[in-house]
Amino acid sequence: MKVLVIEDEKELREVITQSLEKECYIVEQASTFKEGINKLAGYDYDCILLDIMLPDGSGIDLLRELKSMNKEDSVIIISAKDSIDDKVLGLELGADDYLTKPFHLSELLARIKSVLRRKNQQGFQSLKWNNIEIFVDERSVLVDSHAMVLNNKEFELLYYFVVNANRLVTKSSIAEQIWGDNMDEADSYDFVYSQVKNLRKKLKNHQADVNIQSVYGMGYKLTNE
């Protein structure tokens, strides 16, 4: 899962990033309104942590811009302003949650998990596809109730395919989702092919009722066929 932290306070931004990376999230950062809008325009995120007070603009205006793009990224506002009016406005504009600074990192992580459960799992603790069950918080997978061991990238890849089942996902979108900013260092998408190949092999060995179709020149699609 990929998270964008838009926060101008460097120390807090780094602490949040390190905490989320320990939980195996892919984390990207922005410290200004301009950096934030560039990230939002160019990429998709599972969750955005958004500070209201940025040095060159308002996080509320960033939220308005995000919604005007018709994007579905979940948003948690993190702000030192404990104002009812700000909370109400943020939620009315489409934010999923509002957390006032200072906060415990454990609470922030719990809020993120809750938002992602509502968004991708309809509130359930697990995500199911045929005989596959994905437990996101525990980062574990069962096939016909038997454990299937995946590395971090394989887990993220399977999760991304299931969330986007029956939809074409391009190689570039997979790279952005699973590798984040690091994908810019790659000169090809061979690493995507390699991870998909490994995941397919493990799914087949565990008799998972799933098919990851290759769409020539474009990407992949997870189907029942």
From TrEMBL:
Pfam families hit by this protein: Response_reg (PF00072), Trans_reg_C (PF00486)
Keywords linked to the UniProt accession: DNA-binding, Phosphoprotein, Transcription, Transcription regulation, Two-component regulatory system
Gene Ontology molecular function: any one: transcription cis-regulatory region binding
Ranges annotated as DNA-binding: 124-224
Domain Response regulatory: start-end pairs: 2-116
Gene Ontology cellular component annotations, sorted alphabetically: cytosol; protein-DNA complex
Residue(s) carrying 4-aspartylphosphate: D51
Stored PANTHER family: REGULATOR OF RPOS
Keyword Iron: no
One example of a Gene Ontology biological process annotation: regulation of DNA-templated transcription
Tagged with keyword ATP-binding: no
Protein name (record): Two-component system response regulator
UniProt xrefs under SUPFAM superfamilies: CheY-like
Gene3D superfamilies from the UniProt entry: 3.40.50.2300, 6.10.250.690, Winged helix-like DNA-binding domain superfamily/Winged helix DNA-binding domain (1.10.10.10)
Residue ranges annotated for the OmpR/PhoB-type domain, each copy included: 124-224
